[in-house]
Each structure stands twice: as structure tokens, then as C-alpha cells.
Amino acid sequence: MIESLHHLPPAAGTHGALSERFTDLAPALTARQAAIESARCLYCYDAPCTRACPTGIDVASFIRNIHEGNVEGAAVNILKQNIFGGSCSRVCPTEILCEDACVRNDDAEGQPVKIGLLQRHAIDNAHFADHPFRRAPSTGRTIAVVGAGPAGLSCAHRLALLGHDVVVFEARDKAGGLNEYGIAKYKLPGDFAQREVDFLLSIGGIEIQYGRILGSNLHLQDLHTRYDAVFLGLGLGASRRLGLTGEDAPGLAAAVDYIATLRQAADLAALPVPKRAVVIGAGNTAVDMAVQIGRLGAEDVTLVYRRGVEAMSATGHEIEIAKTNGVRIRTWAAPHEILLDAAGRVRGMRFEETRLEDGRLAGTGAFIDIAADAVFKAIGQHMDGDALSDPLARELEREGDKIHVDARFRTKLPGVYAGGDCVAPGQDLTVQAVQHGKLAALAIHDDILSNAEA
Predict the structure, then answer these.
(1) For the segment 132-149, what is each residue's pLDDT rounded down to a tens digit?
(2) CA-to-CA distance for 390 and 83, rounded, in angstroms?
(3) DSSP structure class, residue 313
(4) What is the reported pLDDT for 63?
């Protein structure tokens, strides 16, 4: 996946020393801190924090549980709406969702309740004697789910809870999707992602088949024929290209590929690390890449974006993380040329300075060169075209390069549903993918019952 970087030296330091740089970004709350913080909540009626949560977690209720010392009750309150409540407590941009809506922002303190950390406290410290949820009686129906990421597994869990059997088809050799392969290691450290998947699967009724790739050894037509319904949680697996000469040169790689390799690395000290790195992009993935390569030992890390900071899709919190970790952010500069040395390896990038003219981005004709031993692209991803290549899949209505769905995540094809990053509605957030999967499962359940009664 990152073969183009193998000429670079390995990370400096031992695996253990490097691992210490990839522990949780924020320390966990102690029991006393959680008690004090939960006491700050006003337990609002029709709480704005709950309305701001994409999965509809009853925030005031779970925080009251913590205040009363009922950690297990708090965890159940979270998990019944968001089975990925543990990972979302770490990766969710609470600063622009629930915490931004907190009424405490408007009082004398001017500080929201630390909802994300309280959610993490509840999930991390709950100890269940038995699984907190029990499956409904079997419906005798089996649903196919394509993709074992947050959307697919959320859908599978809710369907299993409702009494259906589920077969999940996953292209990789581990479940978890973005949580396992795409999130910064300092956000979901250790084996947290896999432990969360194991907990989810313990509900029963869910089988996962690995190495099954839609459009290759798996086809929508066959799934549609064999199963009572199909949910597509494909994600966006293909990285966008810069469209520049030399894009396949040694020293240039997709950020998502490097992050995936980092997350699966048994020895962080064996990873190739450049002395000077350039990251092209403006989202959270770009920040994750820049921060992580710096923590691995890169001495000079520059994140470059073609527009201004205010247009970056990374949250203000993420941008601050980048700055705190020594990442230089250069804006108003668009990729123009990949600079290569005599051996054909990357030695830097040439950028054209940009500006807005009548509301449109335009080049100024002035150029800047930034020296680099490696360049990482974090300019977005798109769906793999081969995934929807069979005759039935080509009938799916598209919205741009994504799948069009209705308000209940039904596609144009009866019995086929989709959610997560591969569909048009909303932002590419883990918490939103979880909600898509949950709502699609409810739609599948309702439609199966309606068809049975017809």
C-alpha cells in the first residue's frame, strides 16, 4: 500500500517509545472528575445537545445516570442509540455538535459540559454481566450487508436485534472499516476498534465473510436474488488523484494508505518516515496524516491547502491539534508540479499561489517550492467504480459519484438500501454513518413486515 515510500529510512526510536506517542489524545476522566462534570449538566428538557447528536443519544439522561453513580445505565442509554458509542466518544467532533449546542456555553462559565469525555467514561467503565441487549424472536429472514464499517455493522446490529439473521461481506481481513483502518492511531489507540466490533457481534445472529469484494467475487445481482434485503455500506475506497505528471513516483502516497499501514503495524519503528513531509488537503484526514508523521519522527511537516483556513473542512479543534504538534499550515497554494530528483524520486512540490476572483479560485502566476522527501495526498476519496459494475448495480441512481437514496435510505432498486460515506446525504462522519446504518435497518425491518402482511 505504501511501496512508494520503501526507500525512506525507518522511524527513529523503538516501538515502545513510539507507541507512547499514540496513546489517547485526551486523558480519561477519573471517577471524581466525572462526578463533578456530570453535576454541571442542567438536564435540560428537550435538550439541544440531544438534538445536535446525529444518533439521537439522550445526553441529559446518560449524564444523570453518571451523576447518580449508575455507569452501566449510562452506557446502555448511549449504546441503544449508538452501538459505536465508544469510538464516537473519541472521534466525534463534539465541539461542533453536542458540546457546541450545550446551554452552558451561554452562562457565566462559558464552557460546555464535557459530553464526549463523559460518554467515554461511561462506555469505558461499564461492566456488563451479560450482553445489555437481547435479540427479538427470529423472523426467519436473512439480510446481506456489504461492508463491515460503522454503517454496515450498525445496520447489522440493529437488524440482529430485531430478530433477523445477517451476513456481512467485507473486502478486508478485519471488520471495523474506518475505525480500524482510517482513524488516527492517537484517537483510537491499541485494539479498541476490534474490541468494540467484538462487543457488537456478541449480540448474535451476525456472520462476517472476509475477502469478499463487491464487483469482483461478489455481485449485487446474486445478493439481491439470495437474500431478503441488501444494505450497501461501501464507504469510499479509492483515493482521488492530483492529475499531475509523476504522481506514481517513489515518495508520493495516499494519506489513507499510510494511515491504514500505521494502524496495522506490529512495529512502528519499521515504518518508513521522511525527514521532510508535505501533506496536501484540508480535512481531518490531512490533519491526522500530518500529526502522525510528525509523531513518528518527521522533522518538518507542512500541510498545504489551496484555499484559506476558513474554508478547511477540518474542524477548528483539529487544526489546533495540528498546530500544537508543530505542523505548519500553508494556505492559498494549489498543487502545480511534482518535483523529482535525478533518480525519479520525490524531492518536493511546486505550488501556485491562489486567490479568489469574483468568488472563484484562480491562480496568481506566482509559484512556491516546498522541499520534501515524501508527499501525502489527502484530497478526498471516491467510490471504487468496479464495486457497482454488474448489470443490476448499474441501475442504481447516482447523485454525483455517490448512491442516491430516499429519506429512509432506500435506493431506486426495491430491497436494496445504502448508507454511510457512499450515499449523498450529510457529512462523512463516523457518527453519521452509524445513524445511517441504524435508520436503514429500521426501514428494512418495516418493509419486510409490510411485504409479509400484503
Answers:
(1) 999 999 999 999 999 999
(2) 32
(3) S
(4) 98
